Amino acid sequence: MTALLEIEGLSVTLPVTGEQRQVIHDVSLTIGPGQAHGLVGESGSGKSMTARAIMRLLPPGAQVQGAIRFDGNDVMALNRGALRRYRGSDVAMIFQDPRSHTNPVRTIGDFMTEALCRNRGMSKRAALQRAVDLLDEVFVDDPERRLRQYPHELSGGLLQRVMISAALAVEPRLIIADEPTTALDVTNQAEVMAILDEQRRERGLAMLFITHDLDLAAAVCDRTSVMYAGSVVEAQAAERLHESPRHPYSAALSKARPSIDASVERLPAVGGRPLSAFEAPSGCAFADRCPFCQQRCIDEAPALRELEQAMVRCHFAEELKETLAGDFEETMREHA
Amino acid sequence: MSTLILSRRLGFRKGSAPGLGVLGWSSAAFLGLVALTAVFAPLIAPQDPLQINLADAHFAPGSEYLLGSDSNGRDILSRVIVGSRTSLLGPLAVVAIAAALGSTIAIGSAWIGGKFDQVVVRVVDAWFSFPGILLAILAVAVFGPGLVAPVIALAISYIPYSARVTRSAAIRERELPYIEALQVQGFSAWRICSRHLLPNLTPLIVAQATVAFGYAMVDLAAISFLGLGVQPPTPDWGLMVSQGKNGILQGYPQEALFAGLAIVLTVLSFNILGDRISRFYQERG
């Protein structure tokens, strides 16, 4: 299988008050055509920055190492015209907060047809018709009326559905969804997610799905990468990640989620606070929060390595295999 | 479409109080009246503003000449009415040129950012320090008196005002997420600036231009007063103040008085309106 999107050893530093600070460290991932890849992690773990790097939307002064290839082409080397074509028709992005990502003084119709007219050379009339059809497909009532409305007249869930159909309108090959349901209220989340998932599968689009919800990623993605402090600490098939996590961090994240099957007095929490990539010590970034930390973890940074169809960044992944699959809530509590 | 949105932003909405306040709206109404007067001046003026009638010189306001007559026996009311044309057209041209070039510089600078932006800011600051009237007098000296030379010179000296105000707003606007979303959709910088950034900054540019209009009017009146602008016998408010100044000492203040009053009321209205629009814009964020 040839990869659609291939990220290899991506590292990004940003200038903060005069010095370059690491925000992404050695991230690699591959998405095949039609494949959905989840990117999971806490706030500040570098998920969104990775997405921005793929779109080449990094802030000025950012220094990038490593390679991002789309369909074999180096994204970082695209010239201005090629970059516009790449952004306009190869990759579409769905943002967390649809309201702030739309021009408030333009109608939904303007918003949806601008890309079609501009990047696809469609006439205004044809573009409007296409917008109506697309809105119909994502179950928006009375699409003609919606096209005449302004973003502030639509609810968050409705607006996010409009964003999804606008992203689909240009027929991209890859969709980057950056926490598309986080800003919505709970009743809308499931619906919007279902629509996104269904449309993606129908069209055979590849997707990079960014979320901090492990279960949601497992439900819609083929493969999941877990990020911590700017690095990928674990990557494996989405359903296996839930059953048999290989890294103490992803295992702890799973344990820290309330489950509908089990009743617990108090959920175990991961002690300490999430680190930014630039704060990461020379050893393992997770060392001081890890319930299984040993001297080697503090001294030596682990590399991402393969272990039974999974990629994991932990010195003791083999030894911890059994423990992480079982109950270790007590250990977590004691450590916290 | 954009006027609709502008009028919405200014508060023409059902159920909400008008955003400009009573004073703002009355200024707007007065300026509308002045503009209509300027457009239909030849139809409204009761007499020929150029008709000299020396026997009727220095008539006091009365039934024959509503606002009196000047030293040449011309009807002051007709001259004020027809004079509104050059008096409004001049500042309008100044403000239009200054706002167009100023916001182009501002948006370009805000978009490109970085060192380019820093250089533009310094250049604009230096530009500020050059007095507009001086530049206008220089232009008249080179190109001869009339309306065109001072208008262009004043427009150039008004650019930094427009550029500075618009730039700070453009920088704020540029950081909003929707701009990023447009970039992700693959639109060119030119398109994003001209079709999204500029329209969204329009209320501010309009507010700024409204205030500047008043200043430009005073500056052009001053240039006319100095005899470097509009030339006699063409009626112009600034010129009328200049020609009527001798009459004040002789006990015939009507020409300078009514032309001056026209300037004061118009400029005052522009200042109030501009102030209200910009305050409204700030309140709305």
Give your account of this protein's structure.
- The complex is a heterodimer of chains A (336) and B (285).
- In chain A, 38% of the residues lie in helices and 22% in strands.
- Chain A contains 13 helices and twelve strands.
- In chain A, strands 6-7-8-3-9-10-12-11 form an eight-stranded mixed beta sheet, sandwiched between helices.
- In chain A, a hairpin with a 2-residue loop joins strand 11 and strand 12.
- In chain A, helix 6 (156-169) packs parallel to helix 7.
- With 285 residues, chain B is an all-alpha fold.
- Chain B is built from eleven helices and no strands.
- In chain B, helix 6 (132-143) crosses helix 7.
- Chain B is elongated, with a radius of gyration of 22 Å.
- The model of chain B is unreliable at 11-17 (pLDDT under 50).
Q: Could you give a short account of the major beta sheet of chain A?
A: 8 strands, mixed
Strand content of chain B: under 5%
Termini separation of chain A: 44 Å
Number of E-type strands of chain B: 0
- Percent of residues in helices of chain B comes to over 70%
Report the structural category of chain B. Answer: mainly alpha
Descriptive terms for the model:
heterodimer; A: 336 residues; alpha/beta; eight-stranded mixed β-sheet; globular; B: 285 residues; 74% helix
